[in-house]
Amino acid sequence: MAVFAKGKIFAAAAFAMLGLSTGSVYAAQCGNDGSGFAAWLQSYKAEAKARGIDTAPLAGIKYDTGVIRIDRNQKGAFKGTLDQFMARRAPASYVKKAKSLWKQNAGLFAKIEQRYGVQPEVLLAIWGMETGFGANSGNKSVFQPLATLAYDCRRSAFFTNELDSALEIAQKGYISANQMKGAGFGELGQTQFLPSKYLQYAVDFDGDGHRDLIHSRSDVLASTANFLKGHGWRAGGGYGPGEVNYAMWNEWNRATIYQQALARFASQIAN
User: Fold this and answer.
1) Distance (Å, rounded) from C-alpha 192 to C-alpha 155?
2) For residues 115 and 107, what is the distance between their CA atoms, to the nearest angstrom?
3) Is 251 a catalytic site residue?
4) Domain boundary at 168, 189, 210, which?
């Protein structure tokens, strides 16, 4: 999901005051370049330790110029017409793939819809557009980009909360720190949950005792449905422009063209 636009790039969200996450203000000041990062990180670690947070996963991290560059140029990803965006993010081959996955996992999708009221094509559209149905979830540790963005002045409080949440996930053993990898903004799993959203909405749908958004298809899809239900998705309701669930796309991604693309993609899968 990255405010990114989501649950994602561009989203400004209220902070989830969960578990160890307190959203407190740190002594060291934010910065707009890497010169103050080391001092900020030491201050963050000390403050986090005082709150009982294990910061061991932050060992050896550095200021991530790559994530800053991407963050400053996000709007470019949403340029062009809807057709051009669809060609990049939801081509005809994805529609065909989604229909095949629906057929192969019909029982799973039926159970998820019964539980959460979210239609299969909606979950398939998100899954496909986010990571190509899990093929492109990313392999970069979430901790360095999250710490960099927490230090960066543009959205320091938002990403400090996400960094807290990521460390909470690791500390409580929900996912081991070395498995917490994503596409570069700190998102986790096959539908790219920010850490705070993982804590709020991830579910263990396959019953193995783990909320695994990286490897478990059942957990990935059910958690995505739980996110939508938690934001007001109306069971069985329409999701096109002007319909009851269309506004829910905004909870997933704040970019208008992304919302339009998800609605069209889901409709193409369903038809």
Assistant:
1) 19
2) 12
3) no
4) 189
DSSP states along 136-150: T---EESHHHHHHHH
Specify the number of domains making up the chain. 2
47, 121, 130, 162: which one is catalytic? 130
Q: Give the tens place of pLDDT for each residue, 67-77.
A: 999 888 876 67
For 48, the token pair is 């986090």
**Per-residue model confidence as pLDDT tens digits over 197-246:** 999 999 999 999 999 999 999 999 999 999 999 999 999 999 999 999 99
DSSP E strand boundaries for the chain: 140-141, 181-182
> Using CA atoms, how far apart are residues 215 and 134, in angstroms rounded to an integer?
9
Residues 70 and 102 in one domain: no
Instruction: Specify whether 128 is located in the same domain as 142.
Output: no
- Paired tokens of 157: 């409080």
Q: What is the maximal distance between C-alpha atoms in the chain? A: 55
Residue 204: CA count within 13 A, CB half-sphere: 7
**Same structural domain for residues 58 and 28?**
yes
Domain that holds residue 122: 81-137+202-270
| 197 occurs within a structural domain | no
CATH number at residue 114: 1.10.530.10
CATH value at residue 53: 1.10.8.350
pTM for this entry: 0.88
Residue 264 has phi, psi (to 5 degrees) of: -70, -45
Between CA 142 and CA 145 the distance in angstroms is 6
Distance CA 149, CA 72 (A): 11
DSSP characters over 19-85: TT---PPPSSPPBSSGGGHHHHHHHHHHHHHHTT---GGGTT----HHHHHHHHTGGGGG-S-HHHH
- Does some domain include residue 196? no
